[in-house]
Structure formats: C-alpha cells, structure tokens
Amino acid sequence: MSIVVGFVPTPAGEAAVTAGIAEAKLRNEDLVIVNSAREGALVDKPVAPDDVLAQAARRATDAGVKATVIPGSHAQRILIQADRPVLAVKAGTSGT
C-alpha cells in the first residue's frame, strides 16, 4: 500500500507532503504525490510547476522515501469514499 498525498503549491500542500513523508517513513511505504487541481476543478490540470513537484519528490527521497508524482483532482471523493484511512492536513499558523 502506498501513502497518497494531494499536493498544491501552497503552505497546506507543503504541510501535506511533510505529513505524507512522515507517514511513509513510519509505515515503510512508498509515497505518491498527486499534483491536484485547485478548488475542486472538474478537469485534471497540473497546478504546480514541474520544478516545484520535483522539489516535493526530492524532499521525500532525501528522507529515505521512494516518491512518485502523478496528476489528479478528486480530493473530496477520495476523502469520502476511500476504503483506507485518510489524513487531512492543514498548514500550521506559521505556514508549515
């Protein structure tokens, strides 16, 4: 089983990657970073530039976690219909 993180280039997205890396390390699992569309867009479109996505994946690799980046935009459906545990993460008040 992989750990899946919905990522947008915001403090909340960075917090999600941080939490995902920690969870992947804890469970010895791979991390899948989903380049999510903002604000519930109905079409899949990348919102994070390639260099930002590469940096997120590099953070995981530097932490010893194998990471893959894919596009997607179905966060609400995943939260509601997932048959596995789901962790929703907010950015901290300091932006992390």
UniProtKB/TrEMBL annotation:
Protein name listed in UniProt: Universal stress protein
Lineage: Bacteria, Bacillati, Actinomycetota, Actinomycetes, Micrococcales
Alphabetized Gene3D superfamilies for the sequence: 3.40.50.12370
